[in-house]
Amino acid sequence: MIKQKSCHIETLRGIAILLVVLGHVIGSTSEGGMKVANDSFFRYLYDLFVNIRMPLFTVISGWVYALHPVKADNISIFLRKKVRRLLFPMVFVGSLYFLLQYFIPGTNNKMVLPDIWKIYIFPYSIYWYLPALFLVFIGIAICDIRKYLNTISRWYILMIVACLLCYSELTGIIPRSVPNYFAFKNAFYLSPFFLTGVGIVRFKERLSSPVMLKIYLAGLIIGIVLQQMNFFYPHITTFYTKYHLSIIIGILSSSFLVNLKLNNRFFIWLAQYAYTIYLYHGFGTSGGRIILSGIGIQNEFLVFLFAGSIATFCPILVEKVCKKWKISSRLFLGTVPHK
């Protein structure tokens, strides 16, 4: 049973995972997902939530971590749990996805079979998030053990550093020629959002004050306006992409939503399966499209609804099956079954 005090976080987790799923159903470009045109409604829908999906998901991870932070005497246990939770699925679910994508006709972005080793070293498909978040956890653990996060002034310093690293990754200051081993560049992208979640918990009086809530709301509104301008008039809003204002907008928008205290029973229910949905929704987004295509249905709205439903609810069945055995639960869910 989810405790009442965290129902608003579980509501947001449910919303965030649904946005992630629907975003991947559409596809980040016209070459992926549903392969919709850049001027279609679905491309607009994808871009509308681009500054909220993964930032909010990562802010929630930071928020949850801050409730049970690592300590020097339990660092080995902490790391073992993160290896099991993040890296086991990266290897085993990622491999399964690779093989199915390779052998099943009609899937997007196939790789050649001899290159399967690359998915364990470089970011791969939707699973880039797993090694990147693992590196973020290691960085935060080091900061906590060295007490770099025990005052708000130090938190501000780390946030500035994290934002600069994120900006460096997005703008190419870190050369594109540098291989993205173990998704370390993606970890730079995630770090300011994770730290935002940590800060909201540890420095609640300062970061959730009435003044800050107004700043968050203003950031959310301004972010929506800028996003709309960038979508419809990209030629006059180059500053939006040039300075990657999406970083600040993602931080402020997520902070506002976390403090909004939303409470919805459906999203709270969905949140308990959020991680499994993340791991397996890629099978559903591809499978849903292939099934409808096989029976001659090309209507974008029907594909969106069907693939989105398959991608959201089928992973729940996968979790229920995998949890029946300890080995499948560990390797394909990253969890240990309750006794």
UniProtKB/TrEMBL annotation:
<feature type="transmembrane region" description="Helical">
    <location>
        <begin position="48"/>
        <end position="66"/>
    </location>
</feature>
<protein>
    <submittedName>
        <fullName>Acyltransferase</fullName>
    </submittedName>
</protein>
<keyword id="KW-0472">Membrane</keyword>
<feature type="transmembrane region" description="Helical">
    <location>
        <begin position="186"/>
        <end position="203"/>
    </location>
</feature>
<feature type="transmembrane region" description="Helical">
    <location>
        <begin position="86"/>
        <end position="104"/>
    </location>
</feature>
<dbReference type="GO" id="GO:0016747">
    <property type="term" value="F:acyltransferase activity, transferring groups other than amino-acyl groups"/>
</dbReference>
<feature type="transmembrane region" description="Helical">
    <location>
        <begin position="239"/>
        <end position="259"/>
    </location>
</feature>
<feature type="transmembrane region" description="Helical">
    <location>
        <begin position="301"/>
        <end position="318"/>
    </location>
</feature>
<keyword id="KW-0808">Transferase</keyword>
<dbReference type="InterPro" id="IPR052734">
    <property type="entry name" value="Nod_factor_acetyltransferase"/>
</dbReference>
<dbReference type="Pfam" id="PF01757">
    <property type="entry name" value="Acyl_transf_3"/>
</dbReference>
<feature type="transmembrane region" description="Helical">
    <location>
        <begin position="155"/>
        <end position="174"/>
    </location>
</feature>
<keyword id="KW-0812">Transmembrane</keyword>
<dbReference type="InterPro" id="IPR002656">
    <property type="entry name" value="Acyl_transf_3_dom"/>
</dbReference>
<keyword id="KW-1133">Transmembrane helix</keyword>
<feature type="domain" description="Acyltransferase 3">
    <location>
        <begin position="9"/>
        <end position="317"/>
    </location>
</feature>
<keyword id="KW-0012">Acyltransferase</keyword>
<feature type="transmembrane region" description="Helical">
    <location>
        <begin position="215"/>
        <end position="233"/>
    </location>
</feature>
<feature type="transmembrane region" description="Helical">
    <location>
        <begin position="124"/>
        <end position="143"/>
    </location>
</feature>
<feature type="transmembrane region" description="Helical">
    <location>
        <begin position="12"/>
        <end position="28"/>
    </location>
</feature>
<feature type="transmembrane region" description="Helical">
    <location>
        <begin position="266"/>
        <end position="281"/>
    </location>
</feature>
